[in-house]
Amino acid sequence: MGKGVALKDYVEIDGHDLSDFCSQVNPQFVDSQEDISGFNPTGVDESTPGTRAQTIALTFFDSYGDGEAWDVLYKLWKNREIFTFKTRPDQSIAVGSTNPSLEGNARIYGWSPNRTRGQVASFPVTIASADADGFDYVES
Amino acid sequence: MSLYRVIGTRRYLEHPPGATFEASLPPAQVARAVEAGAIQVLKDSPVTLQPGTVRLADGWSTQQED
């Protein structure tokens, strides 16, 4: 798969295909950087990775029907459920080396829907890895 | 494995509405999907242990101790 525009992404939460309600997928995988510098001739810092945090920020359009974004996501947050998450660049073709699927078990730790007059009604949701397996890409 | 049918208007686990599929899903996920009107359980197969697939750890007594 060459260069392209993000148009066909697949977004699945707790089994539900929410692709059509989602307009943004923004993974943030970050290792903490721990300073282990000692005195040295150059004065340059020495660091090592510490804890690893994996979150994915998503944006969904307001949609309140059964099995739609609000219905699915609010209950997962309210009941503090662990759920499966999957996303891949192209929903029209199968998972593969050129269409890897980012998958993992997740939780929602916050709920803050915003509404602004005159703007498309959408809300942000950030999910975080729920177990030590974290989020990872699979190719099959 | 249990048998499910997608009864909602949207795909579930990439299966289109009306499709049937077999899967071993966590009970909590099934309950949520049923409540959301996404799937219907056609045949529920509880998890069972097949003979010969498990054994007690070494050193465990096979007889009840009083």
Q: Can you tell me about this structure?
A:
The complex is a heterodimer of chains A (140) and B (66). In chain A, 7% of the residues lie in helices and 43% in strands. Chain A has 140 residues and is mainly β. In chain A, strands 1, 2, 3, 4, 5, 6, 7 and 8 form an eight-stranded antiparallel sheet that branches. In chain A, strand 1 (10-13) and strand 2 form a beta hairpin. By secondary structure, chain B is of the alpha+beta class. Chain B contains one helix and three strands, in the order ββαβ. In chain B, strands 2-1-3 form a three-stranded antiparallel sheet, with helices on one face. The mean pLDDT of chain B is 87.
Question: What is the fold's blueprint, element by element?
Answer:
The complex is a heterodimer of chains A (140) and B (66).
Chain A: E1 10-13, E2 16-17, E3 22-35, E4 47-61, H1 69-78, E5 83-88, E6 101-108, E7 122-129, E8 136-138
Antiparallel strand pairs in A: 1-2, 1-5, 3-4, 4-7, 5-6, 6-7, 6-8
Chain B: E1 2-6, E2 20-23, H1 27-35, E3 39-43
Antiparallel strand pairs in B: 1-2, 1-3
Roughly how many Å apart are the termini of chain A? 16 Å
Average pLDDT of chain B, rounded to a whole number, is 87
Poorly predicted runs of 5 or more residues of chain B: none
Order of helices and strands of chain A: EEEEHEEEE
The DSSP helix count of chain A reads 1
> Approximately how much helix is present in the residues of chain A?
under 10%
Amount of beta strand of chain B: 15-25%
Strand content of chain A: 35-45%
Helix count of chain B?
A: 1
The side-by-side strand order for the widest beta sheet of chain B comes to 2-1-3
Identify the overall geometry of chain B. Answer: elongated
Quaternary structure: heterodimer
Largest interface: A-B, 17 and 16 residues
What's the alpha carbon Rg of chain B, rounded to whole Å? 18 Å
Beta strand count of chain B: 3
The major sheet of chain A is characterized as:
8 strands, antiparallel
Structural class of chain B: alpha+beta
**Helical percent range of chain B?**
10-25%
- Report the biggest beta sheet of chain B as strand number plus sense, adding barrel if it closes: 3 strands, antiparallel
Q: CA-to-CA gap between the ends of chain B?
A: 38 Å
The low-confidence parts of chain A are none
